Amino acid sequence: MKMSGVLGIIRGPFLLLPVTLVAAGAAAAAYEGCVSPLHTVIALVGLVALHIAVNVFNELSDYRTGIDLHTERTPFSGGSGALPSGMVSTATAWLIAVLATTAGAATGLYFLAIHGTAFLPVLAVGAVCVLGYSDLFTRNGLGEVAAGLGLGGLAVWGTAFIQCGTAGKTALAAAVPAFLMTFDLLLLNEFPDERADREGGRRNLVLILGRRRAAMVWAAAAIAVPLALIGFVAAGWLPPLALVAALPSLVLAAPLRWALSRADESVPIPALAANVAWNLLTNTVLAASLFFAR
To answer: Considering the domain 3-292 in this protein, what is its CATH number?
Structure first.
């Protein structure tokens, strides 16, 4: 086993996403008047653990179905290649996945004990998203929605809720763009894997809708993010300062140009990079704006 292989299967660089999601949820709770630093740290540990679990389960599934053997890897898609290359054994991968799932479940049960059955729906939906993603949702056209919930909207709203056992309009307003962005993060990364996913039995939106229509769905969700932020500010659910969180959407020029005119071609690497940067920056800027607007 090599450490680089372990970092590969847990998808180390992508673990910045849960950090930004927890920041957005905690900042929304702080803006609404109730935040717990301890609960924020515990939520961060739990969400990072669950993200690791999803990543490793997905690598194991792709290796078992042969998808990993046919992907054209990019820095943002196609898996790590650690299992097919032998850098990490399947036994080690399973151990990491089980330990990460256990750590995530423990944090969920901790908050269930504190907040009671009001937290149960969050815990239940999160568990289904983690355990069902690779072998259920990605094969039934629901992978993007499951990702958008589990590592997007639900993560933000749940983080706000666990602070003091309640979450208001600001938490919901912060959760909506998070859902759309994680949905789009997965969707754009599926284009390079189109052939391998088809041969491996997956049914994602790229395969169901075709490249052009799936690209239009991606573009629509991308454009909806700044529009949602503007709408929530106008409705009073977010403070005016939150409008600055729409600025990172400017980095989407390259992927939008591709989606609207060249969807039949390979997604340029800069477009994939912009998609990731947009997610991280928007969540981070939104968190900062909510914190400073308290």
So the answer is: 1.10.357.140
